[in-house]
Amino acid sequence: MNTNQLRQRLSPRIERSRFVLRSAKMAVSSCVLVIAALTAHAATPQSTVTVDFRFFPGLGMMDGNWAALKAASDGKVYVGLACHGCDGHLVYYDSGNDKMVDVGGLNELTGEAGLGLGPQSKIHAKFGEGTDGRIYYATHGGWWFDYARFATPEGYPGSHYMAYDPKSGKVVDFGIGPRFEGMNTGAYDPKFNRIYGLTHPRGHFVYYDVTTGAKVDKGRINNWDSICRTLGIDGQGNVYGSFGAGRIFRYDPRTDNITELSARIPIRQKGISLGRDYDKSETGWRVVVWDQETKKFYGVEESASTLFSFDPSAPLDSQVKTLGSMCIPKFGSSRNVPYATLSLTLGRDRKLYYAAAGAEFDYGGGADVAASHLITYNLRTGKIDDLGEMRLPDGRPVVGTNSADTGPDGTIYFVGAVSPDDVKSSADYGGKINGVPFRLALFIFHPKKD
Amino acid sequence: MRLKLFLLIAVVLSCSIAAIGQRNRDYDAVVVKQTRIDARDLGYPPIDVIPDGESGITSLAVAPNGALYGATSGAHAHLFAMNPRQGYVRPLGVIPNATLVVNALAISASGDIYIGASPSGHILKYSPAGEQDKQTEIATLLPVKDMGQPIAGETISTLICDPSANMIYGLSAPNAHFFSYSIDSGKFTDLGIIAQSIPAGERFERDKTVSRMLVVDQHGDIFASGENGSFFRFDPRTQKMDKLAIQAPAVPGREPWTCVDAFLLDPSGMIYGGTSDGYLFRLDPVKLTVTNLGKPLNQYGINGLVRAPSGRLYGMGGDKDEMARLFSYDPATGAYDVLGFVDVNRRPYYTWQADVIGAMVSDSDGTIYIGENERISKLYLFYPAQ
User: What is the pTM of this model?
Assistant: First the structure.
């Protein structure tokens, strides 16, 4: 898709309702969204917010990062770097020593290098930290070729469940979980010592029980083109995800059952003018984080960047509440809010930090180069603030991110794209956004103390 | 230089598409043409619909009056119906004591539905009456009459009805008994075992290899595949089961693990079938010859085979770990067409792709019904070109 096509897809069209039965509900939801946008939108932004950054040395050609960012308890910040058609990498930033370490290429770490298989190109899901200090994750494929190579000898062999042990510096490979499929989405639960995931392309909910070694497939949740991008885990170890038209499912590890809840998140009805009608058949949350203090999830809906809370223990009719909009204020309640990012984290200061895209952003699939904004939501006051454009100390804009996490000292980390220092060869950048080269970087933000 | 520029642009564009990681218009070329396919939920969402986890369609059959009946498998098995004139799926109720009904709906000439329920292993009779006037309530038990268990201790792996003889035939699991049930007398008869042993394999392989369907030919003989991929024929006149000297097509050496996934009786009298390895074949039930017609796909399995009024055959290929594709075969020319994934793209109303197919049937109007067998499953309607 080129930029003109994308712009064409973003042109205003008449929104069509999905089901007549839902029209009334959607009208109510729309009103709620508009009211929320008018009353709870971000305050006037400051001009910029300065973030520090670190490149990934020797890995300039890495072309994306989605969700795979973990600021661990020991101060190391783990990052999964993607490389379509090649080896993704597991790296970590040692914040104590200000040092970036490349643990290795995923093909090497999974023992698949040189086999002529579809490469382990990504860690495309969240890392988790076990009570044993290990960092748990699962791998993902890169190219899918319209699934013409699915389940073929040259195709992608399947996602590996893995762990990195910081004590030994070694990676443990638990083997392939879902055959031929990647781990599109994932979450680790230290309580039950399990790696959970949603597979791509078949959208199955799966898990690996680290203690028992069991690999379980609980069946299909999503259509391939709209697999839920964040699994949330509550304090009891229940796992939540979105499916269908704003619906939520819950997996209970005690019963090993999936329940489809009646609660619905505040989705915006899709239309051609959203530009992504052809990309997403379901509508759900983009990202959620669990707050142990309020025992609620806070999340951002994917289409209009609507912020909501989800209280699993509340009465059925009040589990989900709309809190406002996390998009950049200039987009307001317009149709063309850039697709929500995965960059949401809860700070130690009781604020949600969200890096909102300045233009439709997906690394090489981005529409244009535009600075991300850092948006916060104060859980104590309910106030949304736009802290301004995210820029490096030298003024370069952060042109998009898709992961976030909070370090033990309250530092906020993001991974995303920025223009490279220098481009001498194709190894110096991961791709181009509207013709402009970008390179991946770890962004570091130190919140001011109130 | 231009070539390099072109390649660079192509790489950048393809990177863009992959990075989004979602549907793009290229995908339209790898799915069934959208004017020829549609999908139905199994009921009236969000309440009166067969629940996810119970909606895997594993049996489909068309009644003499043209109505489609289907059975699901999952935490509970359900029976549903569709009147083609109305075009929507009506859940009829939960099948008692059943979690699996696999290729096991047999409809008699009178229109009674015989359900091979597993794990109970009983045959249940459902007599349609006033379905259109009943309130749909998903948790309601289907009113059935228990006709008994054909083989003690065994479940039912497939059923078929010979309406002209008022007989039902079936296979049991795990021990591969071939049995009959007389609708007139209500009598079960154990007619023998078509697979004596589990083929050599890995320790996790514990099933005998028998066909997943049966077929009744124009003379009333019943065909099955059994151990070593061999065909068996039951002659109702002599009440004799014969192991034939013909086998389902297989790569030499793979016969022990080969079975027939799908059978189809053609009006020409020929029997067509698809094997677990994905071969299509033609069996001449008179000459007792088998012709290997090749593989339409580089995938395992043919999980359904039907005939359109044009004479063309349509089938679904793909194993449970794969992504199913629809193909057609023209007996007149021997040509295959690969039609692509079963994907229905009705934005903004509904969109879904079937990865695993559990059943397939066609009606006299030429509509082909394709049943998805996953945790969330739909019924697909395919309208072949005439």
Answer: 0.91
